[in-house]
Design goal:
The chain is of the alpha/beta class and 198 residues long. It has a domain at 4-111 and 139-152 and 177-189: Rossmann fold (3-Layer(aba) Sandwich). Helices cover 35% and strands 22% of the residues. It has helices at residues 15-23, 44-51, 68-81, 98-103, 124-131, 166-189; strands at 4-10, 31-38, 56-58, 86-89, 108-112, 135-142, 152-159. A 7-stranded mixed sheet has the order 3-2-1-4-5-6-7, covered by helices on one side. Strand 4 (86-89), helix 4 (98-103) and strand 5 (108-112) form a beta-alpha-beta unit. Helix 1 packs parallel to helix 6. The radius of gyration is 16 Å and the shape is globular. The two termini are 29 Å apart. The structure holds 5-O-phosphono-beta-D-ribofuranosylamine (GRF). 5-O-phosphono-beta-D-ribofuranosylamine (GRF) binds next to helix 1, strand 5 and helix 6.
């Protein structure tokens, strides 16, 4: 089995990254976390990744200002250097140009803490609570130019409880995320979750 070379892109805490790193330790896991990239130099997740012995890179977006294409060229160079085949976005808080997304079409995954297409964008847990949803959850999907949209690879639902706040709901959903992302990446790396554009 050749393991797919995966880059995880983060901006923050990195708990989904940690779950993916953990899963990839299994001998039969079809993906190798070959690189962790953070656009935030002091993100907690990048420290964790270093401590876990991962290959890491920091690509601060700030010097690029509004020039997304220049940021993406620098990112693409790093991905090329490490011969990356799949990208997992895990709390990565930058939007990509349509060109970059197109280049990685069917090879870039994202996780969002709601049952998409419900509650995309910011504050999904607040959105779920305001809507009175009785169930929420998490979604892993292929990335398309539209934010928090794209073909769904896997979902796990989570109950919304009567006295939930955005924080308590987020914590319950996060546990599901940590199961879901490794399972979804497994399917894609094994070639099952391949996305053929309609
Ligand atoms: C997760 O809830 C993920 O679904 C969302 O951002 C959060 C990142 O958390 N996209 P972490 O950095 O993986 O802990």
């Amino acid at each position: 089995m050749t393991r797919k070379r995966v880059a995880i892109l983060i901006s923050g805490r990195g708990s989904n990254m940690a779950a993916l790193i953990e899963a990839a330790k299994a001998a039969d896991y079809p993906a190798d976390i070959a690189l962790v990239v953070s656009n935030v130099p002091d993100a907690a997740g990048i420290t964790h990744a270093r401590e876990a012995g991962m290959t890491t890179a920091v690509l601060d977006h700030k010097p690029f200002g509004k020039d997304r294409a220049a940021f993406e060229s620098a990112l693409q160079r790093i991905l090329n250097e490490h011969r990356i085949e799949l990208i997992c976005l895990a709390g990565f808080m930058r939007l990509f140009t349509a060109e970059f997304v197109q280049r990685w079409s069917g090879r870039m995954l994202n996780i969002h803490p709601s049952l998409l297409p419900l509650f995309p964008g910011l504050d999904p847990h607040g959105q779920a609570l305001r809507a009175g949803a009785k169930t929420s959850g998490a979604t892993v999907h292929f990335v398309i130019p539209e934010t928090d949209a794209g073909p769904i690879i896997a979902q796990e639902s989570v109950p919304v409880l009567a006295h939930d706040t955005p924080d308590t709901l987020a914590a319950r959903v996060l546990e599901a995320e940590h199961r879901l992302y490794p399972a979804a990446l497994r399917r894609v790396a094994e070639g099952e979750g391949r996305y053929n554009q309609p």
